[in-house]
Specification:
mainly alpha; Four Helix Bundle (Hemerythrin (Met), subunit A); two-stranded antiparallel sheet; 2 strands; 2% strand; globular
Amino acid sequence: MKAQIKKEQLLAELQEIRNSILAEASALPVEKRDMVFLGAWSVKDLLAHLAGWDYTNIEAIRYILVSRLPDFYKHRDPDWQMYNAMLVEKYKRDSFDELLTLVRTSQPQLIEFLQTIPPEFFNRDFGVRFRGYKVTVQRLLETELEDERVHCQQIKDFAKEAK
């Protein structure tokens, strides 16, 4: 029962923070959506990054469940810069509306997939390690949640500065 509650809580938090990100991004003035504010990223780049990680995590979780290290670990560098750049290039759209549609559909696909996984598998040790670190479904999702919390605050801060 405890695993079920943890799973439901984690999925709810992922959806909640994504909704906040989408609301904050949508509220930005049109002229600010392509403005670089986060390293080399605009809000559109950040949204593409989020969609990319949704799809990455679907694949990664499939790997974990069969005791394999997800492929994206081959691209590990500081702050995942090269992998994130590849995701932005792959998922960015010129149209903000198309990008919003993509981001509004990528996470539900991840959540739908996660609903098929038994709660007890979320924190199960499938023997997957990266540099001695235990890789689990739950840890991947907690990392995504923390990343999205940071990005939500970054968009809020940018919106305040943009006024």
